[in-house]
Structures are given as structure tokens and as C-alpha cells.
Amino acid sequence: MARVLIAGCGYVGSAVGIRLAAEGHLVWGLRRKPQDLGRGIQPVRADLTKPETLDVPGQLDFVIYTAAADRNEGRAYRAIYIDGIVNLIEALKRKETTIRRFLFTSSTAVYSQSSGEWVDEESSTEPRHFSGQRLLEGERVLLNEAFPSTVLRLGGIYGPGRARLIECVRRGEAVCPEKVRTYSNRIHLEDCVGALHHLMNLQTCQSLYLAVDHDPAGRCEVLRWIAQRLGVPPPHKVETTVPENRASKRCRNTRLICSGYAFRYPTFREGYEAVLRDENHA
User: Fold this and answer.
1) By the number of CB atoms within 10 A of the CB, which of 33, 90, 181, 228 ranks highest?
2) Are 138 and 153 in contact (CB under 8 A)?
């Protein structure tokens, strides 16, 4: 049985915690309002941006940092992805906790490639937007610490309760730019959980992994597939150009696959099919 703290126990964190608790691990979920964390997760009421509130459990084996910024602005990103990590690290040091691994869910936003390039863990990271910049800085803060740490760069997360693209297509609001192909990278919630669980159990774990499915498909390809599956008209075509700061890259998941992880939803087709099936059964 492992003792696990999930910091920022929200959409991804709660799902991870429920799985770990079901396996018999002792799991704490930390957030400002820790109600409804999920079956088996012990609540810790604290604010990662306020160090005086961080009285964390002792003798932890794993820390999983899945916190997310509550506003799309630079100050909020710094508070949660840099200050929050620093504050939690200091709280762990005060407890003299020797953890086996600290896992941090970062994002593919740290890449700025915009012409459909393939990227992996060795590719350059020169983000132009504050979101990627703050995330990259948070990664570096964590990886410079003495205890074992691993960063998992996630693509766009979707799954139960996160079906924005489906609703956009269903309402007829989706559009596809003509003569422009922008790639996007995504991962189903269950594979986010699966990848974190997998990395916790690896005897030898690298410091960085990309967590995206096998198919970095074009946005329009995804929208058209959803429309066909729903039986509604395809997205409208519009004449537009891609903003200069819009990233468009294709992320490789080779390192994660080679470590032994098998995706439950290897492409958006299987993943969105599962979301639609869950909708029909709700």
C-alpha cells in the first residue's frame, strides 16, 4: 500500500485518486474546497498559493501534482504552476518526507512549433504564450529538486464531462478554415489516469514523457468525424488564416509506449466513441 498525495485534486486528480484508492492505497486529495473528491480519497483543505495552509500528510510515497490555473492569465499561471510547486516542495521538506516520486502534469503548450512538425521529449521548447512559459518554468523548478521527479506533458484532455467539441458540432457552431491544416494533440481522461498509474509503478522512470494518443489529427478531421457520427451537417468552411502564435505540432508518444504503457483509446475515434456511448447511456 502506498501513501499518495494528489495536489490540486480536480478533474484528472480525482480520477487518479479514485483508481488508487480502489486498489487499496491511502490517498489524500488537496484542494481549497475538498468536498466530493471521490470514493476513498481523504480530504486535505489547503491552498497551494498560500504556504501557511499547507500542512501535508507525512511519510508520503508519491505526490501527484494535477493542479490547474483558475484563470487564463499570466498571474494565475505563475501562482499555480510555479509558486504552488515551490510552496508544496517546502511543505514536504518541513515534514522531512522522502518520497519515491513527484509526478507533475504539464502540457504540450510548452512547444511553439506551428508548421506541423513532429516533436518529442528532446524537441526545443520556446513557448511564446505565457501559459507555456509558466508551465516550462514550473517543470524546471521541480526537476532541479533532489528528490525523484517526472513531468508528464499532456495533450488536450477530454472525456466524461469534457465534450466541448461534441457540443460545438451538435449546435452547428463548428467551423473549418479552408486551405489551413492545424494539428492538435489530445488524450482521453482514462489514459491520463492510466499513464500516471503506469509511471508510478515503473522501477526505472525517466524525468519527462509526452502523453498524447497515437493520432495528432487535424482539428477539421476530428470535427467532421464527430459530425458524421452524430448524423448532423459537417462544419462550415470559412476563409481564415492561422494566428501567428497558434501552435500546430504533432507530438510523439514513443517514449511512453516504449516504457510499456498501452493506450485504452489510441485515437480520437475510440475516445470520442466512448464519450458518445456514455452520453447515450446517461
Assistant:
1) 181
2) no
